[in-house]
């Protein structure tokens, strides 16, 4: 997976036009990529999606998270099995 990069090698505040210019010339730039499909997640570190356990912890895009997340009611307590 390709890691994101920042101007000067350090994460810092940038306005939207500076982000767009940097990302256009330095893919993936500041974009966070999904650890499963390597597409942009549309999120940042503060609101990243991570799977609970498993090999594909994240960050994940919403589409990949929907594919691997447990469906509510599917998991049972060990005392119920």
UniProtKB/TrEMBL annotation:
The beginning of the lineage is:
Bacteria, Pseudomonadati, Pseudomonadota, Gammaproteobacteria, Oceanospirillales
This chain's protein is named Uncharacterized protein
Organism (species): Vreelandella alkaliphila
């Amino acid at each position: 997976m390709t890691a994101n990069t920042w101007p000067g090698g350090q994460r810092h505040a940038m306005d939207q036009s500076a982000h767009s210019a940097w990302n256009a010339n330095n893919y993936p730039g500041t974009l966070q990529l999904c650890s499963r499909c390597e597409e942009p997640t549309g999120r940042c570190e503060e609101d990243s999606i991570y799977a609970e356990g498993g090999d594909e912890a994240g960050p994940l895009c919403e589409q990949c998270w929907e594919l691997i997340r447990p469906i509510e009611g599917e998991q049972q307590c060990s005392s119920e099995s």
